[in-house]
UniProtKB/TrEMBL annotation:
The lineage of its organism: Bacteria, Bacillati, Bacillota, Clostridia, Eubacteriales. CDD domains: MATE_MepA_like. This is Multidrug export protein MepA. PANTHER family: MULTIDRUG EXPORT PROTEIN MEPA (PTHR43823:SF3), SPORULATION PROTEIN YKVU (PTHR43823). Its main location: membrane. The chain crosses the membrane at residues 20-41, 56-79, 100-121, 141-165, 177-195, 201-222, 243-268, 288-315, 327-346, 366-385, 406-427. It comes from Allofournierella massiliensis.
Length: 459
């Protein structure tokens, strides 16, 4: 009976849409919010290391987007395979669903080892290229080297967790992330301060926490509880290719988001010079931490509920898809409105968690205010892009994602050249307006078959 109840936690094809969206979106949002604590807690403790906190924080800030870019491979496979698995489950084909999961598990295992080896071999050149200075490089190297050793744990825990959520087990998905975050919060002060390991201790605490999440996820997916479990065999290059094609959009979004951060750090170093460059990078690290609080839980809402859209797309139920998208959009806009208000009214309270430095703090407050000027439309952008991805429609989601990146990069390089380093932060609100506008136009012109109640075209 307990096993039966677990399998019926969320019936993606029959449960009422409002309750279904809430039961999946809220745990997914909370899971991503808690996962933000991985980087935020690390940076908070690092920024408060006696005497060297300012430089150590800047060094960790340089590492942040690089390790996140490596971690985005988990979404290439996890978010690439989970919508395909949802569609097959909705179409009543569990054999095909199991085959997708088996291929995704193999890909994540192989890619994690290859990425770890490549990143370790090129770590110093990478850090120098992407914004580390002579003063911050030792701290960046210490953090990055240790963190890379946990790459398999990070990729498997994040990537395979998508296959828990897409089967309707949103609470289990949340528990896996919360386990890692709680471990990180507990271990960080022990390794950083008690054992006096500094940034090396922060990285070690993180990879041990990721190991805990990884073991939780794999134990669940190898158990008899989920309808679709990890199996071995049935490996197929065509299936792998389809997964990579489907996952390229979320992978590209995360990877290019971090390319944007890397470019920002490099430009701040360039225009800030030897006197203000490290200060601006430290301020940017704090503002980026705030933006993670915006975007990762928002992605939890829109990405987690993609399983509802994918399942009902496979089942040919456009009425349920359209109804779900309305509730997802309402939740997304409410969340971004709340974070916009926090960014404008409480940036000092957030920034002071990371540093009390009289030079860095005012720069961080100003950066947060600029970056959150237009975050409300991001609720629309994420709903549309992740909705397309959840239904396997990368022909729409990928170009729209790239358009928003283009809308960021153009002002990023022009504004600081004209108005100084801090003007680079205005690239964020510009892209947050232009990207959602383009997405809305495409959605309204391409998705009328949903509003008309037509049967979803099968791929």
């Amino acid at each position: 009976m307990a096993q039966q109840a677990a399998k019926l936690e969320n019936d993606l094809g029959r449960d009422p849409i409002p309750q279904l969206v809430l039961r999946i979106a809220i745990p997914s949002m909370l899971a991503q919010f808690v996962s933000v604590l991985y980087s935020v807690v690390d940076r908070m403790y690092i920024g408060n290391i006696a005497e060297v906190g300012k430089l150590a924080l800047a060094g960790a800030g340089v590492c942040g987007p690089i390790v996140t870019m490596i971690g985005s491979v988990a979404f290439l496979v996890g978010v690439g395979g989970s919508p395909l698995m949802s569609i097959r489950m909705g179409a009543g084909d569990p054999k095909a669903a199991r085959k997708i999961l088996a291929n995704c598990f193999l890909m994540l295992c192989g890619l994690s080892v290859v990425l770890m080896a490549l990143a370790l071999a090129t770590r110093e050149q990478t850090l120098l290229l992407f914004g580390a200075s002579g003063s911050t490089l030792p701290y960046a190297m210490a953090y990055y080297t240790v963190y890379l050793l946990g790459t398999p744990f990070a990729l498997l825990s994040t990537g395979m967790n998508q296959f828990i959520i897409c089967q309707g087990f949103a609470k289990k998905g949340m528990q896996s992330v919360m386990l890692g975050a709680v471990l990180n919060i507990l271990l960080d002060p022990v390794f950083i301060f008690v054992l006096d390991m500094g940034v090396t201790g922060a990285a070690l605490a993180t990879i041990l926490s990721q190991l805990g999440s990884c073991l939780f996820v794999l134990r669940f997916l190898f158990s008899k509880t989920p309808p679709i479990r990890i199996t071995f065999g049935g490996y197929d290059l065509r299936v792998m290719g389809r997964v990579l094609a489907t996952g390229f959009t979320p992978f590209a979004i995360i990877a290019f988001d971090n390319v944007m951060i890397i470019a920002l750090n490099a430009l701040l170093q360039k225009y800030g010079g030897p006197t203000e460059g490290d200060l601006m990078v430290a301020a940017a690290t704090i503002s980026q931490s705030f933006m993670l609080v915006v975007t990762m839980p928002l992605g939890g809402i829109t990405g987690g509920t993609g399983s509802i859209l994918g399942f009902n797309y496979g089942a040919g139920r456009p009425d349920r898809i359209l109804q779900a998208q309305k509730f997802i959009l309402a939740l997304s806009l409410a969340y971004t409105a709340l974070l916009c208000a926090a960014g404008q009214l409480l940036p000092g309270a957030f920034a002071s968690i990371f540093t009390k430095d009289a030079q860095v703090l005012p720069l961080a407050v100003r950066a947060i205010r600029i970056c959150t000027l237009a975050v409300i439309p991001l609720g629309l952008q994420y709903t549309i892009i992740d909705g397309f991805t959840g239904m396997g429609m990368m022909r729409y989601s990928l170009p729209l994602s790239f358009f928003r990146k283009l809308a960021y990069f153009v002002p990023l390089f022009i504004l600081p050249a004209l108005f100084g380093g801090m003007a680079a932060f205005y690239a964020e609100p510009i892209s947050d307006i232009l990207g959602p506008l383009a997405s809305l136009v495409v959605y309204l012109s391409r998705m009328r078959w949903l509003a008309a109640g037509a049967k979803a075209p099968q791929k």
